[in-house]
Amino acid sequence: MAEVKNLLESTRLVTLTGMGGVGKTRLALRVAGQARAGFANGVVLVELGELRDASLLVNVVADAMGVRDRSARPLLKVLEDFLAPRNLLLVLDNCEQVLDAVAKLSEELLRTSPGLRMLMTSREPIGISGEVALPISPLAVPNTEQLWKRQPRSDAVTLFAERAAAVVPGFRVAEDNKLTIVRICQRLDGLPLAIELAAARLRAISPEEILQRLADRYALLTRGNKDAPTRQQTLRMCIDWSYDLCTPGEQQLWARLSIFAASFELNAAEAICGGAQLADDLLDTVASLIDKSILIREHAGPIARFRMLDTVRDYGREKAQATTEYPELRRRYRNWYEQLARDAEADWIGPRQLKWITRLVAEQPNLRQTLEFCVTDDFECGIRMAGALFQSWLARGLFSEGRHWIARLLACEAEPGDLDRAKALYAATVMAGVQGDLSAAAALVEEGRALAHRSTDPMVRAHIDLANGYLALYTGEIDMALMLFDNATHVYTERNDELFQVLGIGGLGLTHELNNDPERAIECYERGLAITEAHGETVYRSYTLWALAVAVWRHGDRTRADQLLRRALHVGRHINDLLNVSICLQALAWIAAEEQHHERAAVLSAAAEQLSLSVGSPTVFLPSLLECQKKCDREVRKVLSEKALAAAHRKGRGLGVAEAVAYALHEQAPAAFARGSGSSPAAPTKRELEVAELVAEGLTNREVAARLTISPRTAQGHVEHLLAKLGFSSRAQIAAWVMAATRHEDP
């Protein structure tokens, strides 16, 4: 670890290389955890093991940094501008699946961001100038009994003991078993994954029996070959052994579960992988695979999720693809995730919206894989799914990704149903327009017009009118936009489609606003707000509150505008929507300037502008509001001296999201990483925060226990409580949370 840290001090790109299961990720996390104090803006961790589509790499990295692609500029440019002034360590884990894209992105980011350093893990070097590739060796193992006696500690033996204690409470390395354990670790070449799989066998057999079975398999590998097996063969041998020790039902479920791209819920496993033979005892079989360390149960929230390590999943996928049932498995997988997306859309205008967003975030790797399957297997399923996922893409600012999938699906030769195609065309038009790609939006609308002309379905025409209305809005054709939005909204109201009613009413209100008709704009916004509030919806409510606030302020009601913006800020903070927060801060700055609070206006404007950099969208994106911003700037500069103005801007730019919202709401600013406050029942305790910091350093539960002088079981309990409180599913997410929180702390 010291060698890696030293390399990061002298070079800007370090790649940890080695075969799967050798411990690259574990080492990278430990290095990142200990190095974060040396970077003013901390550390960002990006997990790439589940990414197969190289064209989405920039989106995934930007998403991990909180950078959104709502602007007209290319997302890579937004990301470069965000990173340019920052000093941080970017950790990209498991790069081998998208190696060329990682190389290209790394070169660009290192060129434009002088304060950036990068730490990669990959099975092979990235291959760009300036890279230092460091091959990672397996864990140290004593090679003789005498060495073991002289050196009582060994990383490999420590890992075996830790994993053994997790499956056999009270297990420890003692005089009567230490030589056996050393020989097991030797036989497994010190490979962490192989050691973990072997230790899991202690539920059923003794260390001596494990060693004997490993010796028998090792002999098979060397029969007829004088050379010792490679480490890759050793790992394969260990996974083969784990597979052979499974019952036929466990083997079948292992293979079927490998269809998942990442973690999954039990109900998904039952629907996709159950089948006639496994349906009755699937839960018991899942429990057995957990006991054998094939599956890992993630502790996060009320719904359990399960996952496999990449190497174990790849092995299972090989087995599944060799069977005749694999096409049917893919079909079940597609159908399940299509239905999940459609269920989310149907429930979007409701109190469970945020839970749906959280769930879809967790399922994103599976959703991406499903869309990839659809491109080749079932185009119509993909179009239906993309139309349903639009709400999630819109809420999370994933416009480039949404357009990517819809473009690929629309390019397929097959023809979907008119209504599904109309929804997809509408979604793509809105995303293209928001990003400023008006030529693409116009082409999509033209295709939609042809579709609407030959269709007799009023909903098809309504979706195309809605798309055309937004295009007219983007191009300044106000009268046309008013007519189209009005037509679409009328159909949605007749059909009682509340989701599209909200979308149509919002466009209509915005168009009236641009047409200098605040009274009708207010009427539309209040109508939309009534729908969202009646159903407990959140995302559209936050933007409607902002739009209504600006409209009533321009109509002369400053007090109500202030109240509405505060409500919008509360919602934006709750859902962590930085675009919503930034535009609300900017509107509050206008009100502050009007009330002669010029320093406050300057602080709020600077905070809003700083947040907008990570959003990738300006705080003022409507032409009619540009004059409001210019007037605010003029008033502030007229009153404040250059020194006072610069100080206010520094203060605003220095505020994190939570601090900026607290300042705007006249609240006490919270600490970004509230060490030990424990003021909320859901807040981590002081001890849990200490555990979180050690997890961020890459320490295992046993190492955390030793550092804090507590039992390993207590340390495990603290980690599980942290996962539940933070809504996370892995230790890597805890590490990323600590790193992100540290980035916002005052130096």
UniProtKB/TrEMBL annotation:
This is HTH luxR-type domain-containing protein. PROSITE patterns: HTH_LUXR_2 (PS50043). It comes from Rhodococcus opacus (Nocardia opaca). GO terms for biological process: regulation of DNA-templated transcription. Pfam families: GerE, HTH_77, NB-ARC. Residues 677-742 form the HTH luxR-type domain. GO terms for molecular function: ADP binding; DNA binding. InterPro entries: HTH_77, NB-ARC, P-loop_NTPase, Sig_transdc_resp-reg_C-effctor, TPR-like_helical_dom_sf, Tscrpt_reg_LuxR_C, WH-like_DNA-bd_sf. SMART domains: HTH_LUXR. The lineage of its organism: Bacteria, Bacillati, Actinomycetota, Actinomycetes, Mycobacteriales.
